[in-house]
Amino acid sequence: MAAATQGLVQTSLETNTQVTKRTTVKELVESPALTSISSNYYTINSNEWDASDPDETLPIIDFSLLTSRDPNQRSKVIQDLNKVCQDWGFFMLVNHGVPESLMKAVLDGSKEFFNLPMEEKMEFAEKDLWKPIKFGTGVDIKVENFFFWRDFLKVFVHPQFHFPNKPKGFSEVSGEYCKRTREVARELLQGISEALGLEENYIEKAMDLESGFQLFAANLYPQCPQPELAMGIPAHTDHGLLTLLIENDIGGLQIQHNGKWFNVNPLPNSFLINTGDHLQVLSNGKYKSIRHRAIVNNKATRISLAVVHGPSLDTVVSPAPELVESESSPATYMPMKYKDYLNFQHDGKPCLDHIQLTVT
After folding, report:
1. What does the domain layout of the chain look like in residue ranges?
2. What is the reported pTM?
3. At residue 72, does pLDDT exceed 80?
4. Three-state secondary structure along the chain?
5. What is the pLDDT of residue 268?
6. Considering only the top CATH level, what class is 3-311?
7. Average pLDDT over residues 282-291
8. Model confidence band, residue 360 (pLDDT cutoffs 50, 70, 90)
């Protein structure tokens, strides 16, 4: 780290000792004493954040064509799905049928939750990975003294629906939202099954989606006085099959494409969809789980809501046998139960590395 940066961080530690003892990032930002951030929030790779490519445009998939009764339209969008899952692993989904009012309501509910008094939110503060409702601040469990510039709420919403009982109405609107996103994800996965050359219901049956694990993750990224030093969430891939993400009007998502990072600017009333680790495994590497990250700014608070759709926790995920040929295309991932895979989170190593096979 450069000497100037070291001095800046040290000054932050000296001037904000009292502030940094607060529990969450939201509390930090609301303190009048905060003028800089402590080294606990400093991210080493911040010098790479501006390496975004402004010329890239995220592909768009029209969901209404996938559900069309016109076989030609459906066939065309399945070809498009195949291409974007291979080339990008991220796309914008439009005309998906989820009411814009419902999307806004669940974002508003998330904001209201984060605005609850600290003692009410702390009722849900947990460190256990398997607690169905967990509120916290963005600490990396492997490196206990390093924090991400975010607060979060993570909830298991399927096959059993759990949810905080506050603020009023948040559970009900989120329950409806999660149901609607499951319907969208299931339809997309039927199209992706066909795009892989499999039967339409292959993924649904093989991954036991009727009991599929669905995770609701709301993230709050308050404005940061030194956004060049902090990170909302560092580069990572998502577990599961598909993630559906929405956000308020404040940008911050970056994805990696062809070795470069670029900013994502979603269309209004669209979902940002990304393929997860387990779709990469099931497709035997044909589709990729793409690295993405969240940056912060010093002007406004960003809220994002990611809903992860995965297999049932007891499903053993492996490459589809139809996509594995002993010589020309051997299996590149070892089979593993989804629940066991999730236990690899937060150990500081990409989860896929644990199941990657060396092909000779």
Report:
1. 3-311
2. 0.89
3. yes
4. CCHHHHHHHHHHHHHCCCHHHCCCHHHHHHCCCCCCCCHHHCCHHHHHCCCECCCCCCCEEEHHHHCCCCHHHHHHHHHHHHHHHHHCCEEEEECCCCCHHHHHHHHHHHHHHHCCCHHHHHHHECCCCCCCEEEEEEECCCCCCCEEEEEEEEEEEECCCCCCCCCCCHHHHHHHHHHHHHHHHHHHHHHHHHHCCCCCCHHHHHCCHHHCCEEEEEEEECCCCCCCCCCCEEEECCCCCEEEEEECCCCCEEEEECCEEEECCCCCCCEEEEECHHHHHHCCCCCCCCCEEECCCCCCCEEEEEEEECCCCCCEECCCHHHCECCCECCCECCEEHHHHHCCCCCCCCHHHHCECCCC
5. 93
6. mainly beta
7. 95
8. very low
